């Protein structure tokens, strides 16, 4: 084989591997590849690990006592990314007050708000989706003490991706939706900037509160991108053997 053929073959092989890498990389907004940080830790873009000392109720319908009427409370955590990201999976940690696990299908509502002008608290809903029966696993830990409620890790792929721009303030809300007997609490974290907000019938508006919530936002490649990745490997392997 002459020198030109060898160089051509190497160039084709290099192009194949480059195509594989580009097809597998998560893509940010405006078509930008989010290499910096998005491929880190298997695509984890935001990582707030649980600190199992408690958590606020984040539930659209709960009853604290049989002698009190049902109420609701929502909790949101501020989010700002250094780079744009396309979020396709969410993980969060929580527990059920009184260990009141739901006896029926469990629905969680995920919302993304912008930050309103003036006070920077949650404003307009930019994104909303509902997760039906996300994967729920007992972590083996309990909240605060061994006699406290069991800690659970929830995980679900999003039915539609969540698009986050860079250097833009957002608020993320995770709330159990419409299960009266279950008292869901979104667990706290000390991994972020200790800034969250809550709203319920007893306050007029979103109210700032110290602390963070436990969750991960994950950018994973679309199935089509993964198939392109495998296809690229097959082509490169064939050319190397040919």
Describe this structure in words.
This protein has 242 residues and is of the alpha+beta class. The protein folds into two domains: 1-25 and 221-242; 28-220, Jelly Rolls, CATH 2.60.120. Helix content is 19%, strand content 45%. The chain is built from three helices and 15 strands. It has helices at residues 3-24, 35-38, 223-241; strands at residues 44-48, 50-57, 59-62, 71-79, 85-96, 107-115, 122-132, 135-142, 150-164, 170-176, 184-189, 195-199, 207-210, 212-213, 215-218. Strands 1, 2, 5, 8, 9, 11, 14 and 15 form an eight-stranded antiparallel β-sheet that branches. Strands 3, 4, 6, 7, 10, 12 and 13 form a seven-stranded antiparallel β-sheet that branches. The radius of gyration is 22 Å and the shape is globular. Residues 4-8, 14-41 and 224-230 have low confidence and may be disordered.
Tags for this model:
single chain, 242 residues, alpha+beta, Jelly Rolls, 2 domains, seven-stranded antiparallel β-sheet, globular
Helix content: 10-25%
Count of structural domains: 2
Alpha carbon gyration radius = 22 Å
Low-confidence stretches: 4-8, 14-41, 224-230
- Describe the global form: globular
Strand elements, count: 15
SS element count, helices: 3
Strand content: over 45%
Provide the CATH top-level class of the largest domain: Mainly Beta
